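From the pipeline queue, job 12 of 40. The input is one protein chain; the requested action is below.

Action: predict structure.
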Amino acid sequence: NANGGLFNSAMLDGDGIYVDGRLLSVTRAVAKDDADRLTEENSAKRKAVDKRNMYLAYEGTINVNKAAETELELPKMDIEKRRRAIKEKKEKLKNPLFFISATRLSVRNVALGVDEKVLKTVFREAAIAGLQDQVVNMKEVKAEYQLKKGLPVKIVLCKIVRDTENLKAGEEPRSRGYGFVEFSQHVHALAALRKLNNNPAYTEYSGRGVKPTKGTSDADKTRLIIEFALENHGKLKLREKRMNDAKKRRDEDLMLRKAQGEVIEKVERKSRGKRQREAKASRGNNEPVASDEPASKKSKKDPTKVKGPATTPRKIRPNQPNDKKKPAAAKKGAPAAASRKERKGDRSNKEEKSFEDMVDSYKKKLFSTVEDSESRGRWFE
């Protein structure tokens, strides 16, 4: 009836309404304005009790499974990648340990030539542009994720997943075509997602990384596939435990050093260039002043003596003998200096000779004692 007597009685019985053995799902019909209002209220209630952020699971997802490929106006390769992403997400969300991260984005279909620096710049600029274009309605955001005024766009993590198994010597590991970007605020991540996802204006950063020409249609342009990343509660707790244990060990070590009376000084963090300049300056101060004179002459000079006036050397004629220039060792008949090998051989010969002399002296003492005893005779003779 109009008052819903049959519906209320069925709900009170707890059995529900069955038709041909099937349970009917019945709700009261309302006006369109009331339906919109009730939808927002129910959505807010679900978000308040949603601990896994399931309302973000399909943010940015295109329904490629139901729509025809001609209606999607996407490259065939992009459609296959999106279908694969939806399937993987559904399988993981069956596990209650998985939840949707509110600040971390999963980026697929990334060009192989895009590195972390380029990806970070693109996402930061996209988040700023998305906030300016007001792509995010603050009514859609949970109360705990509301953006505070004056907070700048900050990217906490930007990572490209690379192939470390097939690594060549001297080369950077090749990109696998996907990565992760994590913002400090949920609103910034949502703005970047809505600005970049499925946007043909960013084709040069996706697919093969080729900038499209003017005549290329949007249906032939590859797009970035961006979604909120899935997190595992178990792995997250394990990561937090490791970080807390490391922090606890550092604190205990610090307290132990303080208890032992050590003076802990804060080391000034210097840039690499500053360290190089300081090392160069210290080397310059330690080096002696360069001079054109040989080292043998420098050592003979006495810096305390006052030099006299410089005199020009007397020219030596070819016929005039110059005995002063010839060293004594260069005269004929003088013995040549022994080499290092010869000196070493002489030293070893001397050692052998001294050893032989010692043996001979020992033999003489021994045999002389025997001869003396024989010459003396026996006691009874």
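Job complete. Residues 53-231 form a domain with the Alpha-Beta Plaits fold (CATH 3.30.70.330).
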